[in-house]
Amino acid sequence: MAPILETKRLRLRPPTWADLDGIHQLGSNPNVMRFLNNGEIQNRSQARDDLERRIKQTNQLTGYWITEQKEDNAFIGWMALKKLEQTKDTEMGYRFLEEFWGKGLATEAGNAILSYAFQTLNLPKVVAITIETNVASLRVMEKLGLCQAGTGIYYNTQCLYYEIAREKYIRSA
């Protein structure tokens, strides 16, 4: 399994079946999903399939991390470090429950993922994508030091493509 990562306020751990309620809460919230999956929300069965896929894609080094508060183990959402479809790039992704937006938690968790990607895995770069109207996600990417490097079709959607090189991250850390 991927390692447990910790920050000042957060614990990032591999997903388990006990996370189904949190994954369903994420996927069934129209505000969380408005920039994803053509805005379609998930029912519980789809959330179960989603969680199963995330568990299967999590290996000893990469995949998905359930993000939770250290103080009370509250489910916040997930972070990902995985192969970006149809590329050789490693993508960082994230999805958090709405009540945890605007508190710097995605940036804090993102820093943990980038630190792991560059200092432990020695990846040459990490990328992230989002649609142009997802301003909050773009803000997180920029706070983490990623810069726009193009556009493309990913997950059947026109996206902005951001990246950060290992050298840049290490210099700024």
Number of helices: 6
The percentage helix is 25-40%
Query: What do we call the CATH topology?
Result: Aminopeptidase
Distance between the termini: 26 Å
CATH-level-4 superfamily name? Gcn5-related N-acetyltransferase (GNAT)
Residue fraction in strands: 25-35%
Described by the principal axes of the CA atoms, the overall outline is: globular
Structural class from helices and strands? alpha+beta
Adjacency order of strands in the biggest sheet = 1-2-3-4-5
Sheet with the most strands, sense and barrel status: 5 strands, antiparallel
CATH class: Alpha Beta
* Tally of DSSP β-strands: 8
Mean pLDDT: 95
Poorly predicted runs are none
Q: Quickly give the CATH architecture.
A: 3-Layer(aba) Sandwich
Compute the CA-based radius of gyration. Answer: 15 Å
Number of self-contained structural domains: 1
Series of secondary-structure elements, N-terminal to C-terminal: EEHHHEEEHEHEEH
Summarize it.
With 173 residues, the protein is an alpha+beta fold. Helices cover 34% and strands 30% of the residues.
